[in-house]
Amino acid sequence: MSEAKAPSNFIRQIIDRDLAEGKNNGRVVTRFPPEPNGYLHIGHAKSICLNFGIAESYGGACHLRFDDTNPEKEEDEYIHSIKKDVEWLGFQWAGPVRFASDYFDQLYDLAVALIRKGLAYVDTQSPEQIAEMRGNFTTPGRNSPHRDRSVEENLALFADMRDNKFDEGAAVLRARIDMQSPNLNMRDPVLYRIRKKAHHQTGDKWVIYPMYDFTHPLSDALEGITHSLCTLEFEDHRPLYDWLVKHADVPAEGRPAEPRQYEFARLNLNFTVTSKRRLKLLVDEGHVDGWDDPRLPTLSGLRRRGYTPAAIRHFCENLGVSRADSVIDMSILEASVRDDLNHNAPRAFCVLNPLKLVIENWPEDREEWLDAPVHPQNEDMGTRRMPLTREVYIDREDFREEANKKYKRLVLGDRVRLRYGYVIQAEDIVRDADGEIVEVRCSYDPDTLGKNPEPAEGQGKMRGVIHWVSADRGLPCEVRLYDRLFQTANPSKVAEGESFLDNINPESLRVLQGCVVEPGLRDAGPESRFQFEREGYFCVDRDSVDGRLVFNRTVGLRESWPREA
Fold this sequence. Notes:
alpha/beta, 7-stranded mixed beta sheet, elongated
C-alpha cells in the first residue's frame, strides 16, 4: 500500500478487511466502465477519482473498460473524449483500453451455457407482452408461456437469433430466475436482444447484443475485477450481478475470486444537470455550443472554462465517499477552482470595458516599461514587464465625474495610482456627440513610482489603485463571461407543462468585444489560465487565433451567487 494515508471511507474499510482476511490473493483491481454514449461529466469525475485512487493507494490496478452494448447510441467521438478526460485528470489505466465488445464471443458462449443449465430461455412474446407480464412493485410477475421450452429448442432459437432469422423485437433471451421476486430486476431479466445495427468495434458481426446487466458483471469476472464500485442506482441490480457471477461458467484461470459490487452515493450538483439524456438534448437542440460548452458540467466543458485537474480532484476528494445521497452546492466546486487558481495562476491586466485615459504631461513618444510580479505571493514565479504610454485604457467602471468617499477609484479632480505605476489625477473629460464620456484627461506625478506621495496643495485626495493597459501596446481580445447555465438550484423543478429547459439562465453567457489585455499574453496558448487582477480568473479559449485572443471567465474572484436556501 502507498505510504500516503488517504481518508478512510466504508469502501476502504471493506478493502482493508478483505486484505486482512487474505481475499483475492491480496490483489485490488477496480475498473472505470463508462458507456460511450456521451461525454463524461463532473459526476463521473467522482467515480474516476475513487476507482483510480483506490487502485493507486493499494498498489493495485484500475481498468478502463467501455461497456459498449448499445450500438445505436455509441460513437467513436465519445470513446476518444472519455480517454482524453481520464488522462487529463491525471490517471492512467492498467493495460490496454478494454471494451465489453472484446468479450462478445465469450459472453455468447456463457449465455449458451446458461441455456444448457436450464437457467435461460428464448421468449418470443412481444416487448409489450413481456413488460405487462413482468408486473410492478405491487403486482407479482407471471411466467412467460415460453418459460418451459426445452433446452434443445432454446439453443436452436438462440442460434436463430444470432443468425439473423428474427426481426428486431421478435425474440429475446431471458434469465430463468423468479417471476415472483420482489426485486423487479430478478423477474427473468432480458439478457440478449436483437439490434440490427453495425457496432463501432465489431462492425456487422453481430445482430444480437447482450444487455448491460448481463455484460457488466461477467466482464468484471472475465477481467478479474475484485471490487466493482458503482453508484447507488445499481443497488437493486446487485442480486442479478451476484446471480450471474455465480451461475455463469466464467473460466477460473486468472480470476482470483468472484468480483463483488459495492455502491456509493452519486455526485448531485445544484444549478446544473448531469443526466446524459438531458445533456445530449441541450447539445442537439443548440441550447449550448457542443459538449465542451463551458457552461456544461462535462469535463470537456469544465476544462475549456479553465478548471484544473487538481481542482476537480480536490473537490471530489473533499466530498468523501458515503451511501447517503445529497446535493452539493455549486459554490463548493467553484471554491475549489478559485483556491487552486489563486495559488497558481499568473496575474495579468485586462480591461473589459475600455475608457481611454490620456496623460497630458507625458511625452507622446515616451514608452516606459514597468516591472510587476507574475504572482504577488510567489516570488519564484518572477516578474513581468508592462509598457506605460501616454494613452492607456482603464475600465469605464473605474471613473466617475462625481462620487462619495466610499468610491475608491478615479473621480474628476482626485487621484489614484495606476497599479505598479504612477499616481495620476483626473483633470478633464471629453464627450462625444451623444454626451458619453470617451476620454479622461489627466496628469501624472513623476515622483510617485513605488512611492506614496505627500499631499500637496491643489491636489485631489488619493482614492485607490486601478488597473490599466497601454492603448498603443495592448492586445485587443474577446472575453466570454460564463455564468451558471440554470437560474434555479433544481432545474428539474418546473410547473406543469414546462421542462428543465425553461429554467435556462438567459445571462449564462455574455460576450464582450473590444477588450484589451496586456501585451505579455500575446503568445498564451489554449487553456493557459490567468487571474485578471480585480476581475476574476480566465483562460485562453481554443477559438483564439493569431492577433485575436479569446478568454473564458472561469470564476469570479469571490462568490457572487447566493447559496441555496
